[in-house]
């Protein structure tokens, strides 16, 4: 499978996928990495791994629609089977999410449906949650609302700050996210595009 990864920042999840690709465990090829932020460290990670790294700065566009249109054109040049949002910090238009429905996945740092949106680690602590985690899900028009594929939970400790908690959650993300990509590449994951989108995971 051909994979395009979208990032905005550090790209530690991207790195986890690159590592799996290099050890032959990803089941697909990352053919391009695209960032909406020019300085994103993940772009260096891609280049270092010999992967095409491109930037599409959202600030150069007047509105969300025109950015998403240009992004879609840039992605589709690579004819991907799967688009992976790995710390891509942009809200996407329904036209864009519809175009990639069933072939675009995201990782969100919470136990969805809890804590959609930003600052999830601090919000989980403030809410007094016993556990926190991350979820990989198919992307639909609803922000952080698409059907879940796999989820990992960690216990919140009394001494946790949002930084220590984020670190433990991300450690788990780096195992879980490449695994979900592998399942997709193996044809074991399917989004059913009926009224209530749901996911099947085949053996
Ligand atoms: C991750 O914590 C992910 O859950 C969230 O953004 C972060 C991206 O980190 N969506 P990185 O760029 O992969 O290091």
TrEMBL record:
Keywords: Purine biosynthesis, Transferase. SUPFAM superfamilies: Formyltransferase. (6R)-10-formyltetrahydrofolate binds at residues 64, 89-92, 106. The active site is at 108 (proton donor). Residues 2-181 form the Formyl transferase N-terminal domain. Pathway: Purine metabolism; IMP biosynthesis via de novo pathway; N(2)-formyl-N(1)-(5-phospho-D-ribosyl)glycinamide from N(1)-(5-phospho-D-ribosyl)glycinamide (10-formyl THF route): step 1/1. Belongs to the GART family. This is Phosphoribosylglycinamide formyltransferase. It comes from Pseudoteredinibacter isoporae. The gene is purN.
């Amino acid at each position: 499978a051909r994979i395009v990864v979208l990032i905005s920042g550090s790209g530690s999840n991207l790195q986890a996928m690159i590592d799996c690709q290099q050890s032959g465990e990803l089941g697909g090829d990352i053919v391009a990495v695209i960032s909406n932020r020019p300085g994103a460290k993940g772009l260096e990670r891609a280049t270092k791994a010999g992967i095409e790294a491109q930037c599409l700065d959202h600030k150069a566009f007047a509105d969300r629609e025109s950015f998403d249109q240009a992004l879609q054109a840039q992605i589709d040049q690579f004819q991907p089977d799967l688009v992976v949002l790995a710390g891509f910090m942009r809200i996407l238009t329904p036209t864009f999410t519809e175009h990639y429905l069933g072939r675009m996945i995201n990782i969100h740092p919470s136990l969805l449906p809890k804590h959609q949106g930003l600052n999830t680690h601090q919000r989980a602590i403030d809410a007094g949650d016993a556990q926190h985690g991350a979820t990989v899900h198919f992307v639909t028009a609803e922000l952080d609302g698409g059907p879940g594929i796999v989820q990992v939970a960690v216990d919140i400790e009394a001494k946790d700050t949002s930084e220590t908690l984020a670190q433990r959650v991300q450690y788990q993300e780096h195992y879980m996210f490449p695994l979900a990509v592998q399942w997709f590449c193996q044809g074991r994951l399917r989004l059913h595009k009926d009224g209530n989108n749901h996911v099947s995971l085949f053996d």
